[in-house]
Amino acid sequence: MAVFKTWVKNIFREIADPDRDVEITELAQLIQGGLAKHKRSFVLTEVLGDRSFKQSHLDEARLSVYEKYLARAWADGRMEASEKEILNWVAKCLELPKSMLKKANLEAARPRFAEALAIAMDDCVISSEEESHLHWIAKTAGYSLHEFMMEFFRTEGEQFLNGVFAASIEAEQSAIDSLDELIATAAKLGLPQEIVLKTIQPQAVRYIEHTLADAKQDEILGLEEEQLLNQLLKRFVLPKEVKSYISSELQEFHLLSELKRGKLPSLKQPSGVSLKAGELVHFHDGATWERLRLLKSGPSTDVHKGFLTISDSRMLFSSSTRSESFSYGSIVSYDLPGSVIKLQLRGRPMQRFVIQNGSKSPSAIFECALRMANQLLTNQDEKRRTRHIPRDIRQRVWQRYSGHCAECNATEYLEFDHVVPVAKGGSNSDANVQLLCRNCNLKKSDLI
């Protein structure tokens, strides 16, 4: 769009001001000749004489002459004191406004600064000597290093910081160490910490997503993994909605990991729920009971909205239209598709309980409580070992899908998934591992 606007502007200028380029060239030649001839006695008004011209054309001609001297001074990559003195004299002779001078000096020094910065950042660390050289370039252009860096940052800085951070991560350096080094480097360049954190936000989100997906792959959240993710959430500045979603994901993942270890959450007795002596409550929240009845006229489903309570010995459903208790001993079989609990009870058809908040943790709590009650909860270490996907495989799979779901291209709630489940003989090779978002993973589970 910017290129199109420039093209339209140039076309309009050619039509409205056809003599512009010719007059600017003539004025520049006149001024250049006057400087060469009169030197220290140069006076702009005397050189122009009674020639008629547009003021805008004169402004561009003056700037053009100054830029030639400026390019000559920077030709060898350095500007000597004598060259700086000549530039100041030319600027004074041409009566250039300070704003015009400042912009011209910035643009001339920008490529020198970029080159020096690239050399300095070759090892991702700026030495005191390199810092001094950058200070010198900025000062030569009439800026402090902080001022120059802020101007430079508006165009090249964002790409520069993102590149440095990404390179550090790819070099297997921890994100926290990379961030600390980047902040220290940026401080030398005069960039505040808040600007650095905001700039690398997209990279940080992607990195935390990757770290979370890595932790999820074996379905157990280790202490080091949890500490790292909490550190990342605390250290990086993330969009509010992203931080909220990752925090909730981490909280649920922690709960699911504890359940796999046989550790159930304990809640206070919910108001209005009648419990037996010593009965422990592990879950209580809103749910819908889809009660299937087999009538002579055919199957019929009644829908009741209320609350589902999971304890250490039974499951209770309470509502204003229907309430009932289901002991774990009466359950013949069950199925847990996502946020739904399906129960096959002795002598009764299949019953469905849909959790209102859409979380899959209630289903996991129910399964853990049932297995604990039936004394069937076993050590998960063997399962964890067989399902564990090596780090190099996870890295290749993540790069193959560029951090997107293989099915719907989503970038959130990502999980490493075995194309052929381990239980059915699937291996941990990269050919059998894909990246799926939670929704697509659940859909796949429903089809298996």
Automatic annotation (TrEMBL):
CDD domains: HNHc (cd00085). GO terms for molecular function: endonuclease activity; nucleic acid binding; zinc ion binding. Residues 392-442 form the HNH nuclease domain. InterPro entries: HNH, HNH_nuc, NA-targeting_endonuclease. It holds the Pfam family HNH. Keywords: Endonuclease, Hydrolase, Nuclease. The keyword Calcium does not apply. Gene3D superfamilies: 1.10.30.50. This is HNH endonuclease. It comes from Bythopirellula polymerisocia. The lineage of its organism: Bacteria, Pseudomonadati, Planctomycetota, Planctomycetia, Pirellulales.
